[in-house]
């Protein structure tokens, strides 16, 4: 099948080209992000392959349908960037990679927690300048701390397993209780109780109309003073302006983000010689207790191999008349 592959990065081409000989597909790698200005580049393709910040709204889907596109193949798990109703109206199927490596994101979550706590990013720079002072590097034992996980699906569960190994008490809030999480030792509770009791709050639920700004001024008000907040899920789960107020009031003592609500104009690009116009993002960067990575939690060899294999198989299945991993 002919595939228009938007937002293509060199590292993605490596993994997809490696997996390609097992399939009969033809990939047209396009560096541009999918939006209304670029949708016409899909001409001649039946499948469009997109990532987290490609825009797949009603207007884009109308353009894609007019060109004969029949399938949107997401090479990620989240699908909040796709207007599913509009896709259905145009008869365009949407498939995704529901699970590739929950460990990749869970382990990055732990990396953010440990780095914020023990300040290894600051220590690294200091030692390279022969500054061996410990001032400002004081951390805390993770052992015995209470960590609240919001969303106990695949990634939340993998995160809980690691945290139990550290000797943490793990609280969980989810719209459904799973026996698997209970078996790991997660204590399910209410949203409010989790916020009130947790030293660290970490988000692992999807972004949808029910979870948009789940962490807002009211939610932050219920958290412990000095809480650590981690988001490796989707930026829109957090009202960033409310979080900035929480940082200024010192209610939030540590913030670790791999995602940001307006990341579409920033992440995955080298903007080191550009002026960043997003004042909210640049304000976040001024806090010494904020650590931001550019949506890299998924980015391990294992995850990339699995993403390439599953995406190409999803497209092959569609070609054979079967919908695999449909959203
Ligand atoms: P999953 O579907 O296995 O789990 C999601 C869990 O969230 C489910 O248990 C679900 O019941 C729960 N949930 C749904 N609505 C909720 C709500 N209102 N409140 C609390 N819980 C709710 O998904 P997953 O594979 O664990 O991925 C979780 C999220 O991580 C994805 O939606 C995606 O946005 C994000 N993600 C980020 C990266 C990254 O690189 N940063 C990579 C992959 C996934």
Structural descriptors:
alpha/beta; Rossmann fold; binds nicotinamide-adenine-dinucleotide; 15% strand; single chain; five-stranded parallel sheet; 2 domains; 12 helices; seven-stranded parallel sheet; 327 residues
Explain the layout of strands and helices.
Layout: E1 2-5, H1 10-19, E2 26-29, E3 47-50, H2 58-66, E4 71-74, H3 84-89, E5 93-95, H4 102-118, H5 120-128, E6 146-150, H6 154-166, E7 169-173, H7 179-184, E8 187-188, H8 191-197, E9 200-203, H9 217-222, E10 227-231, H10 240-248, E11 252-257, H11 279-285, E12 290-292, H12 301-319
Parallel strand pairs: 1-2, 1-3, 3-4, 4-5, 6-7, 6-9, 7-8, 9-10, 10-11, 11-12
Helix pairs in contact: 1-12, 4-6
This protein binds nicotinamide-adenine-dinucleotide.
Nicotinamide-adenine-dinucleotide binds at residues 77-78, 99, 102, 105, 150-156, 173-176, 204-207, 210-211, 232-234, 258-259, 295, 297-298.
Briefly say what this structure is.
By secondary structure, this protein is an alpha/beta fold.
Q: Strand percentage, roughly?
A: 5-15%
Strand order of the largest sheet: 8-7-6-9-10-11-12
Structural class designation:
alpha/beta
Assigned CATH class of the largest domain:
Alpha Beta
Mean pLDDT: 97
Shape: globular
Counted by DSSP, the helix tally is: 12
Total strand segments: 12
Task: Quote the CATH topology of the largest domain.
Answer: Rossmann fold
**In whole angstroms, how far apart are the ends?**
20 Å
Question: In the CATH hierarchy, what is the architecture of the largest domain at level 2?
Answer: 3-Layer(aba) Sandwich
**Number of structurally distinct domains:** 2
Q: Level of helix content?
A: 25-40%
CATH superfamily placement of the largest domain? NAD(P)-binding Rossmann-like Domain
Order of helices and strands: EHEEHEHEHHEHEHEHEHEHEHEH
Radius of gyration over C-alpha positions, nearest whole angstrom: 21 Å
Named once each, the bound ligands are: nicotinamide-adenine-dinucleotide
Largest sheet: 7 strands, parallel
- Stretches with pLDDT under 50, minimum 5 residues: none
């Amino acid at each position: 099948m002919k595939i228009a592959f938007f937002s293509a990065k060199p590292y993605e081409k490596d993994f997809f080209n490696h997996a390609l000989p097992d399939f009969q597909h033809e990939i047209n790698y396009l560096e541009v992000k999918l939006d209304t200005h670029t949708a016409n580049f899909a001409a001649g393709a039946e499948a469009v392959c997109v990532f987290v910040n490609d825009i797949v709204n009603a207007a884009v889907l109308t353009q894609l349908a007019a060109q004969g596109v029949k399938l949107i193949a997401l090479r990620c798990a989240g699908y909040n960037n796709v207007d599913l109703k509009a896709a259905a109206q145009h008869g365009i199927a949407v498939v995704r990679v529901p699970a590739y490596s929950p460990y990749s994101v869970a382990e990055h979550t732990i990396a953010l927690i440990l780095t914020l706590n023990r300040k290894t990013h600051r220590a690294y720079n200091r030692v390279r300048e022969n500054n061996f002072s410990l001032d400002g590097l004081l951390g805390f034992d993770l052992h015995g701390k209470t960590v609240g996980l919001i969303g106990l699906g695949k990634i939340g569960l993998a995160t809980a397993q690691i945290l139990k190994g550290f000797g943490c008490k793990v609280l969980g809030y989810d719209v459904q209780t799973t026996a698997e999480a209970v078996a790991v030792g997660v204590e399910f509770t209410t949203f409010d109780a989790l916020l009130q009791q947790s030293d660290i709050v970490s988000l692992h639920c999807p972004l949808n109309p029910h979870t948009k700004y789940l962490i807002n001024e009211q939610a932050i008000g219920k958290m412990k003073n000095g809480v650590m907040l981690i988001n490796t899920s989707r930026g829109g789960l957090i009202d960033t302006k409310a979080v900035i107020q929480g940082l200024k009031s010192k209610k939030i003592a540590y913030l670790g983000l791999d995602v940001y609500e307006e990341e579409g104009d920033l992440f995955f690009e080298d903007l080191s010689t550009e002026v960043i116009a997003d004042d909210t993002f640049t304000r976040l960067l001024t806090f010494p207790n904020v650590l931001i990575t550019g949506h890299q939690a998924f980015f391990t060899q294992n995850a990339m191999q699995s993403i390439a294999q599953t995406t190409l198989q999803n497209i092959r299945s569609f070609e054979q008349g079967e919908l695999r991993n449909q959203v």
